């Protein structure tokens, strides 16, 4: 899978440009390190043979702490943003060891004594599928994987001279988003404990209060988007093929944080053409004639959660034109979007059917 949200790096830099005071912005930093111990969840019975031990590993993180210098920071209770590195030994001879790199956010609650973290990035699989040397590993079809991790942490900072403790639960997901088969993926649920250190504990700036919230809306805008990528069916060795999606939708920004969207997608997935041919020729019991149309059309609704020029995108769609049955008629899309101007934007999203990814979409769009 190409690097779903390696673009997080590009997107993150857009967070700092916002209306601000004329004083110099301070950039406090904290570091944290955690050890984890957990289990691989059996989300799919096809990976049961790979669940033989309890994964262990560690996560190292760099956090840029915010204090309200930019307006978006005040709206989200002064979150952290930063970068993480994780090492995981899956304690299975066929899965091996993975190393991964992420961009992440920490969102605080309980008087800043706890936070929810979400990280997205790329992982390097130590022992991916190989038809000759490692055909048992049907979880990772490529050496380069997409990875997401979420963490719920109790986080006590500055217990002694900038040092603190944190503990909680972490889920780490690895998948190649159907770039190549097989792609059954893994999810690790783990307990972790660690330490944190605030480099600026003696001179941490005062939090700038949010003040009175002002109403903000925008009129309806129309959007045209071209999405593309490459993927493969679930049949190992069938090959990778390009796909394209043309999307048209309307959006209505209802406040500083939220934008509602509704529109249509037209899908051109070339792996469907080959899959239809294969099933018609080799699997007559499936009832595929070979003449089915490989294109699809869907209607979707969605939401964008805005962080200045960055948005988290979530769509839920339904195929209204569905001539060839594949997975089911409902689909979803999750990802990140970056507005370069008020009119031009780019996005990296995963289009899936439930928890089963179909492909990573790289998008470029224009807003009228």
Distance between the termini: 32 Å
What is the name of the CATH topology of the largest domain? Porin
| CATH class membership of the largest domain | Mainly Beta
Amount of beta strand: over 45%
The biggest beta sheet, please? Answer: 8 strands, antiparallel, barrel
Described by the principal axes of the CA atoms, the overall outline is flat
Report the order of strands and helices.
HEEHEEEEEEEEEHEEEEE
Q: Bin the helical content.
A: under 10%
Please tally the β strands and state the result: 16
* Whole-angstrom Rg: 22 Å
Average pLDDT for all residues: 91
Low-confidence stretches: 1-14, 16-22
- How many alpha or pi helices? 3
Structural class: mainly beta
- Corresponding CATH architecture of the largest domain: Beta Barrel
How many structural domains?
A: 2
Task: Please list the strands of the largest sheet in the order they lie side by side.
Answer: 1-2-3-4-5-6-7-8
Keywords:
Porin, mainly beta, eight-stranded antiparallel barrel, 368 residues, eight-stranded antiparallel β-barrel
Break the fold down into its secondary structure elements and pairings.
Layout: H1 8-13, E1 29-40, E2 56-65, H2 71-75, E3 80-89, E4 97-109, E5 114-125, E6 144-160, E7 163-175, E8 186-198, E9 221-231, E10 241-253, E11 258-269, H3 270-282, E12 295-307, E13 310-321, E14 330-339, E15 344-353, E16 356-367
Antiparallel strand pairs: 1-2, 1-8, 2-3, 3-4, 4-5, 5-6, 6-7, 7-8, 9-10, 9-16, 10-11, 11-12, 12-13, 13-14, 14-15, 15-16
